[in-house]
Inverse folding.
């Protein structure tokens, strides 16, 4: 009962009114930095539970998230990390969701790349975000095939930031996650070297 009522209510609370204007400073704007960050953090957290996932796809949350890709894939925002988490947690179980099929390969890559921009800050003190890193690593490798040389340089820099944060946390989260992130660093470095050949 809670699931069936809360999910649509949440979407209603964050979706702009039909007559909303695109003014950036209006809380009813199409994209509100703070409102949508809180929304994405909440959906990311709830998507850890498989009971919520069908509601997110069925109630329109995935469509809402897809509509935010362009605004969320910017260098100075945490939003892409949470978008990646939502999409990647729901995609394997909800392969029939036509909305996810509408995400282009370029959009997937943009979400993966920008998810790393502030991943080091997002994982600080948040075990659930740290536990998501292996999934992010695998899908980043998958979509990295279309990366440009400059994209790879930026990715490597951000992955280095994450490794520094993980190593600063010690063995608190296990060596496995650090090793997985190092593998991404190696794969990205190898791909970058192919641009020099």
């Amino acid at each position: 009962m809670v699931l069936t009522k809360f999910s649509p209510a949440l979407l209603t609370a964050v979706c702009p009114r039909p007559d909303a204007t695109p003014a950036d400073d209006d809380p009813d704007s199409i994209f509100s930095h703070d409102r949508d960050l809180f929304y994405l953090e909440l959906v990311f957290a709830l998507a850890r539970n498989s009971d919520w996932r069908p509601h997110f796809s069925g109630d329109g949350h995935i469509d809402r998230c897809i509509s935010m890709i362009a605004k969320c894939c910017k260098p100075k925002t945490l939003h892409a990390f949470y978008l990646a988490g939502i999409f990647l947690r729901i995609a394997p179980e909800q392969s029939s969701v036509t909305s996810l099929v509408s995400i282009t390969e370029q959009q997937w890559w943009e979400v993966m790349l920008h998810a790393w921009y502030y991943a080091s800050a997002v994982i600080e003190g948040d075990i659930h975000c740290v536990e998501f890193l292996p999934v992010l690593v695998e899908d980043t490798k998958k979509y990295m095939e279309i990366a440009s040389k400059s994209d790879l340089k930026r990715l490597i820099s951000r992955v280095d930031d994450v490794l520094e944060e993980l190593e600063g946390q010690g063995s608190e989260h296990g060596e496995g996650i650090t090793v997985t992130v190092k593998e991404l660093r190696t794969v990205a470095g190898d791909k970058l070297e192919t641009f020099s050949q």
User: Anything to note?
Assistant: The radius of gyration is 17 Å. DSSP finds twelve helices and no strands in the chain. Residues 21-26 have pLDDT under 50 and may be disordered. Residues 50 and 90 are 8 Å apart (CA to CA).
